[in-house]
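pinging the channel bc i need a second pair of eyes. not urgent but kinda urgent?? the chain im working w is below, pasted from the shared doc
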Amino acid sequence: MLRKIRTILAGVFFVLITLLFLDFTGTLHHWLSWLAQIQFLPAVMALNVVVVVALLLLTLIFGRIYCSVICPLGVFQDILARFRRKKNKYSYSKEVRWLRYPMLVVFIIAAVAGIGSLFQLLAPYSAYGRIATMIFQPVWKLGNNVLAEIAARADSYAFYTVDTWLRSLPVFIIAAVTLVVLFVLAWRGGRTYCNTICPVGTILSFFARFSWLKIHFDEDKCKNCSMCSKNCKAACIDYKNHKVDYSRCVVCGNCIDSCKFGALRYDNARIHAKAKTSEESGSSVDTSKRSFLLASAMVAGAAMAQKKEKLMDGGLAELEDKVAPARQTPLTPPGSLSFDHFAQHCTGCQLCVSECPNEVLRPSSDLMHLMLPVMSYEHGHCRPECTRCSEVCPAGAIVKVDKDEKSSIQIGHAVWIKKNCVPITDEVECGNCARHCPTGAIEMVPLDEENEESPMVPAINEAACIGCGACEYVCPSRPFSAIYVEGHEVHKKI
């Protein structure tokens, strides 16, 4: 019963959080963003005390069920482990202390020192977010586009095509390498990654040692058949000495399910001793209540935390991809307050990247902030009415803002590059930047006021510019725009 309950709940959590990353329509985040908010590290970074306390209490009562039910990377490892068809494929091994605890120390140092790339590389939720965003979502979009082509041939508009492009080659490589490492470790040893590398697993292991409910041996019934150890994906059951390493046990229930002699139980040792005494005296105990209690607690713990349209911005010609300008200060989303605040709180889960409807957000290529989402306007601009990234961020790196507030937040300002401007280079009229500026910060003025035939070029009112990038996106100059947005280290309201 324990294994079935755990498997069903883990499957539901995993499918829903994966759909949250895959969704490009902008609908699921209204219903599923809480799944990101109940992840351990994002809750810590957001100072979400309710969620952190709830997860720790859950661990103190039931053990590390967070790792086997709520954490998508933990459940993903179980899925990868199933590719190895061999039965009874695991065996007991001692805790790898020399790797496990130094990895936690390195993680803490990276967090304190502000080494975001290393911090995000080790964070489990962020690791799965990168895999889902950089690998799974493009495949999902390609499948959607195939369906859209088929539907179009049948004069149906049930599907619509979406752009699929590589947001960051370095981060894609990191995601692919992470996937390969996870597959090898899960295929060979089940939860090796969880119990040797993952910092969240190590942190929760300190609390799991004192959990109220644990896996126990009934030595009178045990026949030392080793089936429990051979089915323990955490390699934490020493059947010879009838001991379980509770710091590594993720309460998957495989051991109980595989034991043919009923020698393993999931309960509190003291209560079991009293129950055993009662049983010997003639009374019975309904053990099915424990499984019901576990299921209720898992669901309650989760409850506590509680048409993309093809962008057509006009212009004189079809807009093609362009090269990103070299910005002195990276652009970060409205609501991130400042670059430092964003870098300190972001876990690099890429959820905002996968949810951005205008293809503005992508992982940074800067080595020190390699997986930190930044903004660029080659594929779209930050529409003033869109606040989706602030709605889905689980770590507090992007503070939630409403549409009216966003329109007054200045994240940067536009800069004109005279040598790239088509009225000068091609001697044609343009004005795309002025026509599409949502705040009216750009107007066309004569390059030479004394010459009546002087070309009209943009003049920028930096005080009114919010840095949305509409001007940069619609600029027809290729490969570099004649106007681009330079970021501000600290955002301000105008």
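so The chain has a mean pLDDT of 88. and The radius of gyration is 27 Å. — does that match what u expected or am i reading it wrong
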